[in-house]
Design brief:
With 379 residues, the protein is of the alpha/beta class. It is 35% helix and 13% strand. It contains 13 helices and twelve strands. The strands form three sheets. A seven-stranded parallel beta sheet has the order 4-5-6-9-10-11-12. Strands 1-2-3 form a three-stranded antiparallel beta sheet, with no helix packed on it. Strands 7-8 form a two-stranded antiparallel sheet. The longest helix is centred in the C-terminal third of the chain and has 19 residues. The protein is globular, with a radius of gyration of 19 Å.
Length: 379
């Protein structure tokens, strides 16, 4: 089954976003998910939960989160605000308890959307956000700014936009080479003592940077790109460091910006004003044409198991470790349903290994970032 066939089979769900949840409590299971439920009650569905971090930094969340970014930023056309809010409410009712945004998304308007849609559920869910990209007069400058005073100013702004008393988790979005990571960690530690931040994380940093930061203020999670077409964290020590130190891992773009869901081909047009995929080497028509062979493998693997390529991709991530929580985003109810149904499937380790072997045999064409964006990752 490909993603388009899945969407057809669930098209009836699009008639009304206010339909009751299709998930019965306790029925969505994954072999490595805990048997407890995620902030249920109030008539919501229940999903398996996972724990990011350990000790005082521990953070219990649904096994799959929700990336809010594409509802306003970098993902071409999107529904109007009311439809986005209704979809976010549906995600809550289906048991999702982890929602992810950032100051730079928009900038600012993604946090504002998340605050408007989700603040009423703050006793049931958690919205994480990120600082670091410099924003001046509502526009990103392309620079990094993680100076202590700036972190504090961004924290206050995020609290207001998200309509929260404390940020459940505050990530450093990108490493700032002009500010020692120990100073960043120390500032976050102060904000935690003040009750304005509950936990913290970092994005796209090296194993060495993780160790330095964690020694000052324990990290809850590292967020980096991770999927079958980008597995650097398996080789550069980041996943091993997270395992050793008891830090969770949150893969962003777990479907490779939608590509591994099977809906993108060489003729896909990206909005030149609101879609960063047009700037990425891996999304040129030539690269898409070549890399579609990987999607074909995922579809072939899923066909005999009743899974779409998106579900295969997310399932592969989930089985990697019980402290990994992907955050796929979407603007479509059918895709939300599809993503969450991943939790209904289980494959044996040998099956996943065979999938890895088949994918690894296909050369990946195109870098994930252009040179400017690549300079901001890996410290």
């Amino acid at each position: 089954m490909n993603r388009r066939e899945f969407l057809k089979s669930t098209a009836v769900l699009g008639a009304a976003l206010s339909l009751p949840s299709v998930f019965a409590a306790g029925t969505a299971k994954h072999p490595e998910a805990k048997n407890s439920t995620a902030n249920g009650g109030n008539g919501s569905s229940e999903l398996p939960v996972r724990t990011l971090g350990t000790g005082r930094a521990a953070f219990q969340v649904s096994a799959l989160g929700f990336g809010v970014m594409g509802m306003t930023y970098n993902r071409s056309a999107h529904p109007d605000r009311k439809q986005c809010i209704r979809l976010l409410h549906e995600a809550v009712e289906r048991g999702v308890t982890l929602f992810d945004t950032a100051i730079i998304y928009g900038p600012l308007n993604n946090e504002e959307l998340a605050g408007e849609a989700l603040s009423r559920f703050k006793d049931r869910i958690n919205v994480t956000t990120k600082f670091g990209h410099e924003v001046v007069n509502g526009k990103g400058t392309g620079r990094q700014d993680s100076r202590p005073a700036t972190i504090r100013r961004y924290c206050e702004g995020s609290l207001k936009r998200l309509r929260l008393d404390a940020l459940p988790m505050f990530y450093q979005h990108r490493f700032d080479r002009n500010v020692p990571v120990e100073d960043v960690a120390g500032t976050i530690g102060e904000l935690i003592k003040e009750g304005k931040v509950l936990r913290w994380g970092m994005c796209e940093v090296s194993a060495e940077t993780i160790r330095k930061a964690h020694a000052v203020c324990p990290l809850t999670a590292i967020q980096s790109e991770y999927h079958l077409m980008h597995r650097d964290v398996e080789e550069n020590g980041v996943l091993d460091t997270c395992r050793e130190l008891g830090i969770g891992f949150v893969p962003y773009s777990p479907l490779n910006r939608g590509f591994l869901g099977g809906d993108i081909n060489e003729y896909t047009q990206f909005d030149p004003d609101n879609d960063n995929r047009q700037t990425l080497p891996r999304f040129t028509p030539e690269a898409i044409r070549a890399n579609t062979r990987i999607v074909n493998i995922l579809q072939d693997f899923g066909r005999t198991r009743g899974m779409t390529s998106a579900q295969v991709t997310l399932g592969w991530l989930l089985q990697k470790a019980p402290w990994i929580v992907p955050i796929p985003g979407t603007t479509k109810l059918a895709h939300l349903e599809e993503n969450l149904r991943t939790l209904d499937f289980a494959c044996s380790p040998s099956e996943w290994q065979e999938l890895e072997r088949r994918v690894a045999a296909i050369p990946i064409v195109g870098d994930r970032y252009n040179a400017e964006q690549q300079r901001q990752v890996g410290f």
